[in-house]
Amino acid sequence: FFIFLLCVAQAMLSIVCVSLALHPGRHHPVMNTRRAGLQIAMVNNAEPAASLIDCLVVGAGISGSTLTHNLYRAGVDVLLTEARDYVGGNVKSHSEAGFVWEEGPNSFATQPSIIRIAHELGIDDQLVFADESLPPWVNHDGRLHPLPKGKGGKGAAGQFELVFGSNGVLKFAFAGQLLSWPGKIRAGIGAFIGHPPPPEGKDETIREWVTRILGEEVFLRCIDPFVSGVYAGDPQTLSMKAALSKIARIERYSYSIDWNKLGAIFYGGLKRQIELTKERKANPPDPAWPEFEYGNPGSFKNGLSTLPYAISAELGQPVGGQAKTDSRLRLGWKLTRLEKIDGGTFVASFETPSGAQTVRARCVVLTVPAHALEDVLTPVMPEASCLFNKLRSEIKRIGIYYPPVAAVTVAYPKSAFRDMELPNGFGNLRDLPGFGSLNPRSEGVRTLGTLWSSSLFPGRCPPDYNLLLNYIGGSRDVTIAELSDDEIVSEVDKGCRQVLLQPNAPPPKVLGVKVWPTAIPQYELGHLDIIDELERAEVKVPGLWVCGNYRSGVAFPDCVTFGFEQSKVVQRFLDEQHEPAKMDMPLSLCSL
Fold it and tell me: Buried b / exposed e across 3-15, counting CB within 10 Å, b at 16+?
């Protein structure tokens, strides 16, 4: 149970989750003969194109921009286009009057893919990491309850802290008050003795899976708030295998142990942890990279936008500056048509600030949200219509659903917070000693969760303030999109007063209100069937990949890892067209 709970905590940290001073000495693209020149094959619609580019990437979110970075470094003749006037997608950082805040994801769970790209771009000196001992807190029954976490020790010492420390697993199990004793006993049975087997041929929801294995109380008080934090979704419609596949497979590990006939989940988690440790030792980080801890919350000194802004500069379009003549990035370009002509060439038409433009490419990667693709994708890949019109009657959903979510950043004086000591020796609430607080739907707080931004990373606000990033809305609260900004702030302020503030706290200092009408793709029941159909459709159109965070994962590290791995797929395709193959790897990545 506890391994499972910590895995979910890792997933939550992933979602919840700008210096342009690059260091040219660290950027050494490996050039090859494929990049014959820097002139892009673009013409007005009335003129024929004289040449081709190797790859067109549509969508400059984290997936598209990191993919382009990796292709560019490999010497691929690549062009990145974006309909908006900035790179980064939902990642937007701001700085004003001593405050630094985010409009989208707040941090990332540190993985090698992020450290690698930061090092390549020369921004690894901008990385910042949270205090590893800071726990996430759950608001229940008028109190904040810490979830188990170590104190930042390494190796065996860290494992000892996690189990026996002042906020360890044993303290949570025997002295914690988040779960009742019946709830603890039910979870213990599922974790150490066994549970009912999975139903045959059924795609279980997150609620069904957790309840079957660990009981209803664990779901309501522990897992439900995490699902809200990761997906802003409904665990009664989200597919366990699709949305939390890494956790779901722990059950398969459990049953793979011969003597564990009843599938007790603890032993599967232990087996996977041992396997994961071996994998990391077999593939250690580059010694030139800065030191990091897997899964620890991280960001950059001036916010997450540091990464896409650095890529923008690398591609020849410095943020706030003049684009270079050989820039590989085009902003304000909206894709209006995509076709494949004789010979296998793709022709993409765009609306741009300077009029209609056409790009010819040997291959295309679409990383834009599914809901933005229907008009341009259907003519060239009709079988991909499952993304938009696949009916799933069980959950009354058509296509992939993106609910609205609002990100609201507010600040209060530290003196406005409750003057109370938190359990397990974490100190006073006014110091916000934690990652943030999550609100189970049963607690009557409309805000899904509140990240304690000023406690996570240094320099995020003046010392006499606390900075809070609140997420509100999601698939169970879609009416949030109908409220005005003032009404949304009022709901957020109300939630902060219910959980964190004194009754006489002053009004908040409002720094940012951003409503994302289509925020996070929902990996609901039937999602894997949609992806299977999409993969079959791709086979019929070689050189066209339809990839977004509805496919490779919604977390920041998932998108960065996608960019690294998909670049290998693209290079392999190009090599097989024009050169002897350089590496042996599959052509389909997006089924990760």
Answer: bbbbbbbbbbbbb
Block residue for tokens 């006939």: 261
Alpha-carbon gap, residue 233 to 477, rounded angstroms: 9
- Using CA atoms, how far apart are residues 469 and 471, in angstroms rounded to an integer? 7
Q: Is the pLDDT of residue 128 over 50?
A: yes
Strand partners, 468: 410
Q: Which residues pair with 159 in a beta bridge?
A: none
Q: Which amino acid is at 119?
A: H
Tell me the pLDDT tens digit for each residue of 355-377: 999 999 999 999 999 989 989 99
Res. 163: pLDDT tops 90: no
How many other C-beta atoms can be found within 10 angstroms of the C-beta atom of residue 590?
20
Residue 84 has φ and ψ, to the nearest 5°, of -85, 180
Helix (H, G, I), strand (E, B) or coil at 131: coil
Residue 155: which residues within 8 A CB-CB, separation 6 or more? Answer: none
Contacts of 430 by beta carbon, 8 Å cutoff, 6+ apart: 414, 415, 417, 418, 419, 466
Q: Distance of CA 306 to CAs 111, 280, 486, Å?
A: 17, 27, 29
Start-to-end Cα distance in the chain: 26
pLDDT tens by residue, 465-514: 999 999 999 999 999 999 999 999 999 999 999 999 999 999 999 999 99
Each residue of 81-119: b (16+ CB within 10 Å) or e?
A: bbbeebbbbbbbbbeeeebbbbbbbbbbbbbbbbbbbbb
Count the Cβ atoms, other than its own, within 10 Å of residue 572.
18
The rounded distance, in Å, linking the Cα atoms of 431 and 590 is 42
Tens digit of each residue's pLDDT (9 = 90 or more) over 228-283: 877 899 999 999 999 999 999 999 999 999 999 999 999 998 899 889 888 988 98
418 in Cβ contact with 504 (< 8 Å):
no
Pairing status of strand 405-413 against strand 465-473: antiparallel
The residue type at 34: R
Instruction: Give the model confidence (pLDDT) of 211-220 as tens digits.
Output: 999 999 999 9
The overall average pLDDT reported for the chain is 87
Distance (Å, whole) CA 426 – CA 410? 23
Structure tokens at 178: 């988040």
Tokens of 95: 């700085």
Q: Which of 27, 29, 102, 112 is nearest to 300 (CA)?
A: 102
- Whether residue 38 is predicted with pLDDT greater than 70 in this model: the reply is no
- Type and span of the H or E element at 558: helix 556-578
Between the alpha carbon of residue 19 and those of residues 94, 112, 311, 318, 414, the distances in Å are 12, 21, 12, 11, 29
- For 514, phi and psi rounded to 5 degrees? -130, 120
Question: In 56-143, which ranges are continuous DSSP H helix?
Answer: 62-73, 112-121
Q: Are 225 and 438 in contact (CB under 8 A)?
A: yes
Distances (CA, A) of 283 to 26, 67, 280, 563: 22, 22, 5, 19
Q: Average pLDDT for residues 132-140, to the nearest whole number?
A: 91
